[in-house]
Amino acid sequence: xxxxxxxxxxxxxxxxxxxxxxxxxxxxxxxxxxxxxxxxxxxxxxxxxxxxxxxxxxxxxxxxxxxxxxxxxxxxxxxxxxxxxxxxxxxxxxxxxxxxxxxxxxxxxxxxxxxxxxxxxxxxxxxxxxxxxxxxxxxxxxxxxxxxxxxxxxxxxxxxxxxxxxxxxxxxxxxxxxxxxxxxxxxxxxxxxxxxxxxxxxxxxxxxxxxxxxxxxxxxxxxxxxxxxxxxxxxxxxxxxxxxxxxxxxxxxxxxxxxxxxxxxxxxxxxxxxxxxxxxxxxxxxxxxxxxxxxxxxxxxxxxxxxxxxxxxxxxxxxxxxxxxxxxxxxxxxxxxxxxxxxxxxxxxxxxxxxxxxxxxxxxxxxxxxxxxxxxxxxxxxxxxxxxxxxxxxxx
Length: 396
Ligand code: FES
Description:
Layout: H1 6-28, H2 38-46, E1 51-62, E2 65-72, E3 85-92, E4 95-102, E5 117-122, H3 130-136, E6 142-149, E7 162-168, H4 173-183, E8 191-198, H5 207-216, E9 220-226, E10 235-236, H6 241-247, E11 253-257, H7 260-272, E12 280-282, E13 305-312, E14 315-322, H8 327-333, E15 351-356, E16 359-360, H9 370-375, E17 377-379, E18 384-385, E19 389-392
Helix pairs in contact: 4-5
């Protein structure tokens, strides 16, 4: 066995050079305090509070989905990773709503000569406002928004370079971004296999774009799995344990993005395959479309409407809220501003103190801190009223 110290010597040489440069910088620095807050400036550039984005193109991504391309009017697009999302703010009637959209373009495209990012949106997704985007956002329109958000991305220090992506419906968007990044050589050494579940061939979102990336890059493989298309010659049915196993490699990282029902199905399949939790990364799991169907939901609340007293400073408003809707939705519908991003209980931005009343939360999927649970703080996007409730929210 031979041991080389060549790298160590290089490292030591590098450290000496940096130390010397630092000494010179100190010696030449002005004795006056710098009025600029460089750390703040950097933080604002990386993660601006609010930006303006102009839509520069809209094109079909499938018969029921569209891709919207945006440029920034603020001079730059903050750095983001494949899998992160942008939050747009909409004024619809009396309500101001913010909604998250996963970015389908690649990070390198936001750093190109003509920087842009894209979101691909499907119609009729109830917790978002896709139909509003479809009918009201056109080329030339300017939207308020901010990015990046989300913790669902590939991390080289933690994840394998063999990635098996499990996608359903519009959950393909983070993997479209990732496929483009891999094809552009930006995720060195990564091999991406995407198992993409759709009902029929016509439902496949970004079908042509996926095919083009797969053709251009041997490190990207796309496997369509169709559940109801008799003429389909590829994989059929759902993304089952058998299909996952067929396309897996030892110690690969699994990444999931798709509807809630599919998440529960895939999670079970991976457990049956004995995949350790550390190898399974998933995007935010959407709230159930109908909270009253969750096993254990208190039946006596079904169909009821409660009063929510919303406290902001010294102001109090009483608004109605159906048992079936989250407190955040009731607040937004009443035209009261509430900060939200993920809208599915993960980020904690809609966190607020419930002063009185009973609230329902999902039994096994709570992301609240233990202290919050004990002190009556809730994520209002994932909290449903079971009685009249009094809640204190921040003034915006
Ligand atoms: S908006 Fe993220 S937890 Fe509610």
